[in-house]
Automatic annotation (TrEMBL):
GO molecular function: structural constituent of ribosome
The name this protein goes by in its record: Small ribosomal subunit protein uS11
Organism: Aldrovandia affinis
Matches recorded under SUPFAM superfamilies: Translational machinery components
Family statement: Belongs to the universal ribosomal protein uS11 family.
Length: 172
């Protein structure tokens, strides 16, 4: 098999004049030239090198510039929510709860479950290009306790230890 101008050319030594046959859905015509038969085949589709397009999910920023999001941590004595939004608070980027990370109901508000939830949120934020977070921490409130639950501190520590820059911390 020879390659001429990107096409595969097959050559046979046969005793026939002109013949046409069907191969791989293509009609190939064989022409006799000095005791050799040639068939020109279309190039294979699977062998082409495809250009990979780079798709960025996050905003276009310069190197070393921080992209901020807002992390709303709701820590009650029954569960811990770690919820990241954009700066306006209208668009949810990622939300993970302690109950999504553990199997037992009694462990939903534990510091361990809050740490796992915060690590998942930090990983997802990094994938989307968010490098820094402002923190809004809240408890149950109202006529109930205004003290955050046991998962609040560990969620905040896990965000900081997973490489996220922490901006402002406020009580909500």
């Amino acid at each position: 098999m020879h390659h001429i101008a990107g096409h595969a050319v097959m050559c046979w030594m046969l005793d026939c004049s002109i013949s046409t046959f069907l191969c791989c859905g293509l009609s190939l015509t064989l022409v006799r030239q000095q005791c050799h038969l040639f068939a020109v085949m279309a190039p294979r589709k699977g062998k082409e090198k495809k250009e990979e397009q780079v798709i960025s999910l996050g905003p276009q920023v310069a190197e070393g510039e921080n992209v901020f999001g807002v992390c709303h941590i709701f820590a009650s004595f029954n569960d811990t929510f770690v919820h990241v939004t954009d700066l306006s608070g209208k668009e949810t980027i990622c939300r993970v709860t302690g109950g999504m990370k553990v199997k037992a109901d009694r462990d939903e508000s534990s510091p361990y479950a809050a740490m796992l939830a915060a690590q998942d949120v930090a990983q997802r934020c990094k994938e989307l290009g968010i490098t820094a977070l402002h923190i809004k921490l809240r408890a149950t409130g109202g006529n109930r306790t205004k003290t955050p639950g046991p998962g609040a501190q560990s969620a905040l520590r896990a965000l900081a230890r997973s490489g996220m820059k922490i901006g402002r911390i406020g009580l909500d």
